[in-house]
Amino acid sequence: MSDSIFIGIDVSSQTLEVASSEQAKTWRLANDAGSIEQLVSQASALAPALVVLEATGGYEFEAACALQAVGLAVAVVNPRTARDFARAMGALAKTDALDARMLAAFARVLHQHPERERFVKPLADAELQQLQALVLRRRQLVQMLTSERQRLRLAHAAARPSIERVVEFLKQEIGDSEAEVATHVQRHHAQLAQALASVPGIGAASVAVLLAELPELGKLDRRRIAALVGVAPLNRDSGQMRGQRCIWGGRADVRRTLYMATLVAVRHNPALKACYARLLAAGKRKKVALVACMRKLLTMLNAIAKHGSVWDSTMHCA
Question: Which GO terms describe its molecular function (predicted)?
Answer without folding.
Answer: DNA binding; transposase activity
